[in-house]
Design goal:
Elements: H1 2-53, E1 63-70, E2 76-83, E3 86-105, E4 108-124, H2 128-135, E5 147-156, E6 159-166, E7 169-182, E8 185-196, H3 203-211, E9 221-231
Antiparallel strand pairs: 1-3, 1-9, 2-3, 2-9, 3-4, 4-5, 5-6, 6-7, 7-8, 8-9
């Protein structure tokens, strides 16, 4: 009887011990699972990172900087005035000298510096009377102001900005501009822009405003365009 009782106790204790061992195994297994999946996932992440990092795109940028001297024979400046909204007189004036620096980046040309001097004694319209009037003291006064200067400010979004000094007074200039570089030559096409000579207080317009009836006033806005050619 005693032996049977002791055997039963032994069997119970063995079962409890086995249950505890199983619990420990299960707990250890659950604890190890995150590390197992983390190590597997980490391997994939490392592989992805390695793949993405190994893909590098190198783009070559070609930048060419050049300086040009304005070819005064090949360059021309056009001007016109208006009668109401219609073009009235049309003429030209010559470039005396000039220079420009152009930077070409992947085929796109940009002016980075420029200067231009215009010979006011070369104003041509076709009428000697009008040409004499334009050269007179009450207009361009070419004996006193033989040149007009253009000073460059910037070139952006296909527009050129700068300052023109006319009869000793400054006026802002902004004009649409296209730049083409071909070998040793560069051509700058300046689209039409306008200057209101009222801002210059030119004697002709000041006197007219003070003395003539309004309906007889000339339009003080003058239109310009130009083709400027430069060579290295």
């Amino acid at each position: 009887m005693k032996q049977c009782f002791l055997r039963n106790i032994y069997i119970c204790m063995s079962k409890q011990i086995n249950v505890k061992k199983m619990k420990k195994v299960v707990i250890l297994g659950l604890f190890a699972m995150p590390f197992f999946f983390a190590s597997c996932g980490g391997g994939e992440a490392d592989a992805d990172t390695t793949d993405s990092d190994s893909t590098v795109v190198n783009e070559e940028v070609e930048v060419i900087e050049a300086s040009y001297t304005v070819d005064v024979e090949a360059s021309t400046i056009n001007w016109n005035n208006f009668d109401g909204e219609e073009v009235d007189h049309v003429g030209t004036v010559n470039v005396l000298n000039g220079s420009m620096d152009i930077t070409t980046t992947n085929g796109v040309a940009q002016i980075t510096a420029a200067a231009l001097t215009v010979d006011m004694n070369t104003i041509v319209e076709g009428s000697e009377k009008l040409e004499g009037h334009l050269a007179a003291p009450d207009f361009f006064d070419v004996n006193t102001f033989a040149t007009t200067e253009f000073t460059f400010d910037r070139h952006e979004n296909d527009m050129i900005y700068g300052t023109a000094t006319i009869i000793g007074k400054e006026v802002a200039v902004e004009a649409p501009t296209t730049v083409t570089v071909d070998g040793d030559n560069a051509t700058v096409e300046v689209g039409e822009f306008e200057i209101d000579f009222t801002a210059l207080e030119m004697p002709f317009f000041v006197t007219e405003a003070a003395e003539a009836p309004v309906e007889e006033h000339h339009n003080p806005v003058i239109g310009f365009s130009a083709t400027i050619v430069g060579t290295k």
